């Protein structure tokens, strides 16, 4: 299967090079793969996710995602709008517009009519089981429902990859399970590449592959792995 | 949902803040509308005076006398000039008038108009109460003056130590004339101690005659002594007054732009800082910096245009209230498309200028920082 993401010797540092967030990452991710990225706080896992979503620019190295060379391409908005669907720990929905309108937000960059936007938004809310709550404002929805709206929003432009940063981090375990089921179902049924950053080993082990990041590097299989110890428990 | 409807919804998330901004900018807009309507009203009533009773132009002395505001600053001249003007070709009628200021108990600049009765119809004078002045010691008073000094038919008024009886109240529709009182030309000449002189001649030309040609002819013939005034711009003093009022109006508009602009910058900056995370999400879902810029500036313009609508209504009601309670005697406000258009142009400029800085600030936010913002 072809690679959807190809990363070579990717480096990123902050505070004049004092903090090396990524320190020579090499990674290939296959189209349709479900990958989870784990690691302790400050290990560089979120920076890696941001690089994959073109939210941040590397200092050096190569990164190609969905046929876009992110180190050379200037039109990163277009890339994010067309190829990536983001899900954040906090849903970050716009509070004064309905669930349906929140799902429409990414579609503004596409040239489609308001009616088409609405129809697509409703069908996405149906996928996440919230069609009946389409007209509700976010503050009338539960935490889990808001995150499901955020998932529907991430799917708005038929992305090649969904990047989820701690998608269940602010939810209780019951709601987390529901959200994870939804994400895995989407991955299986829609063949969407799914990359999740998580602290939670139970979430991580649902993936086809688990990548562990420590001090800005991907741990090799021979390294002492947090994954081995956690999963073996 | 369209992009436009999002722009219309966003400013009212924080209703009290939006309302305060609207009030602040609305006060500036209301002032612009009110001042515009009053300035246009003053200009219009001055124009009415020039064309009293449908006269086409006014003839006045070339000499200036700034002490006499009633005659637009022109000095008096011999009334025999009236006959000369009346005998010019294509002149339908010419009425000699003396307009002067007399000190009364109630008004130090009470306008007295000396006009012979045969010319009453020429200034569209209508008696609305009582009757025309018949005796030497009788005057008729304008409706506005009557309301202002609270004197009416049967009352007396002291002019230059002599009592005059008010025989009737008149209306001409010209606020400058209705702010004064009329009596015979000779009486006013006596009052002003200026026998045999007049301050202006109202002239009406024959139908289809060329006003410019006639005024040019008069200026050429009698230019050493007289001058013709066909429009306000012909009068230096009135021109200066109009320039001053227009200047004040623009100065207030500029102040409204500056104060309103600072207010809206503050409002929009607070709005942007409250929504940093949201702006990060918009960037993450593919919104371009240009779209975010348009959204923030659009929200700013929505606030200022709302203030424009409310301010225009308040300005209109305020001026009407001043007129209703007779707090601006002699001024009939005039509303033109420009009065409101100017207010809306100011609102639009304030919106765009005030929105630019917060919008640029929003677009410059790196998405990762915006998403991390607590």
Characterise this structure.
The complex is a heterodimer of chains A (233) and B (374). Chain A is of the alpha/beta class and 233 residues long. Chain A has one domain (33-41, 75-232): Rossmann fold (3-Layer(aba) Sandwich), CATH 3.40.50.300. Chain A has eight helices and ten strands. Chain A has helices at 45-52, 76-83, 99-104, 114-127, 143-154, 173-190, 201-204, 226-232, and strands at residues 3-14, 19-30, 34-38, 60-65, 68-69, 84-87, 161-165, 193-197, 209-214, 217-218. Chain A has a six-stranded mixed sheet with strand order 6-7-8-3-9-10, sandwiched between helices. Chain A is globular, with a radius of gyration of 18 Å. With 374 residues, chain B is of the alpha+beta class. Helices cover 53% and strands 17% of the residues of chain B. Chain B starts with a helix and ends with a helix. The A-B interface holds A 50, 53, 55-56, 77-82, 84, 86, 88, 90, 92, 94-97, 100-101, 104-106, 108-109, 114, 117-118, 153, 156-157 and B 1-3, 6, 9-10, 12-13, 277-278, 280-289, 291, 366-368, 371.
How big a fraction of the residues of chain B is strand?
15-25%
What level of helicity do the residues of chain A show? 25-40%
Overall strand count of chain A? 10
Give the overall average pLDDT of chain B: 85
Order of helices and strands of chain A: EEEHEEHEHHHEHEHEEH
Shape of chain A: globular
Report the sheet-strand fraction of chain A.
25-35%
Number of domains as seen in the coordinates of chain B: 2
| Biggest beta sheet attributes of chain A | 6 strands, mixed
Mean pLDDT of chain A: 87
Regions of chain B with pLDDT < 50 over 5+ consecutive residues? none
Number of helices of chain A: 8
What structural category do the secondary elements of chain B indicate? alpha+beta
Task: Look up the CATH topology of chain A.
Answer: Rossmann fold
Q: What is the helical fraction of chain B, as a range of percent?
A: 40-55%
Between the first and last Cα atoms of chain A, what is the distance in angstroms?
33 Å
| Oligomeric category | heterodimer
